[in-house]
Design goal:
By secondary structure, the protein is α+β, with helices and mostly antiparallel strands. It is built from twelve helices and five strands. Strand 4 and strand 5 form a beta hairpin.
């Protein structure tokens, strides 16, 4: 990615330099401007010579390329966040209020953390402990769980089983067990169901319920719409946060989101 941005920055710099030359000639005052207008485009040899000078200067001063690359990266990230922000507004109800999505923490909390995860994602297992620590230290956080099984068929089995366990009132226990297991698969699902005293036959039937399939498909569509393509990922306030962040970073984002909510004008 860094090399790509560097190439883009270099190309943009050359293009802008040529454009500056064109504009400078075209905006000459008085007779020179009229001559330039009649002359038409800059001759190719003059353009090449000018671009050569610019290229040599940039090669001798590579810090300019680095600065341009940083600006491009920052702009790309800003554009990504802006697009995500618009998508979050559009899908706010689906994110926060879908009755089929399991909810943890304080159901009446003043801030909601939406978590997208896969039961076979190692980073998801790590961040699950982070979320648990945040809930322990902040009693006013609500968590919405979005199964996002993207790491193969066994992940899908585990996701179906977790949602089926919800129907027996054991979602959170099942979720915790899957997150602490070495591998989420049919065997660990069966073992966890036994450990939790679930009706295994009912669990298997519910796992095949079309309603659970539709719920998981909605999660996939939702993730795609808001720009999430990997796990773990979070939606907190107006932000999409990707990757396994630590407890301190998560607490800071929650605090920032709370502050924005309090500062936002109230709708009458």
């Amino acid at each position: 990615m860094t090399r790509t941005f560097a190439i883009i920055a270099f190309s943009v710099a050359l293009s802008l330099s040529a454009a500056v030359l064109q504009a400078a000639v075209a905006h000459q005052p008085g007779p020179d401007r009229e001559v330039a207008a009649k002359a038409g485009p800059i001759p190719p040899e003059l353009r090449r010579a000018f671009e050569g000078v610019v290229r040599e200067y940039l090669l001798k001063n590579p810090e300019i390329i680095r600065e341009a690359m940083q600006v491009l990266q920052a702009q790309a990230e800003a554009d990504k966040q802006e697009a995500a922000g618009q998508a979050l507004k559009q899908h706010r109800d689906e994110l926060l209020q879908n009755a089929d999505s399991p909810v943890g923490g304080n159901s009446e909390g003043d801030i909601t953390v939406v978590k997208f995860f896969d039961y076979n994602c190692g980073y998801c297992k790590t961040v699950s402990l982070t979320v648990a620590a945040v809930l322990k230290n902040d009693a006013n956080v609500r968590v919405v769980y979005k199964e996002f099984a993207i790491l193969g068929p066994q992940s899908l089995v585990a996701a179906r089983a977790a949602l089926a366990a919800k129907r027996q009132g054991k979602y959170h226990e099942f979720h915790a067990a899957m997150m602490s297991s070495v591998k989420a698969n049919e065997n660990s699902v069966a073992g966890t169901a036994s450990d939790l005293g679930l009706d295994y036959n009912k669990l298997l039937r519910d796992m095949e319920d079309p309603a659970i399939s539709e719920h998981l498909e909605r999660n996939y569509r939702l993730a795609t719409e808001i720009g999430i393509n990997g796990t773990p990922a979070f939606v907190i306030g107006d932000r999409v946060v990707s990757g396994a962040i630590d407890e301190r970073a998560l607490m800071e984002i929650i605090a920032e989101s709370r502050a924005k909510m309090k500062a936002a004008p109230k709708n009458n």
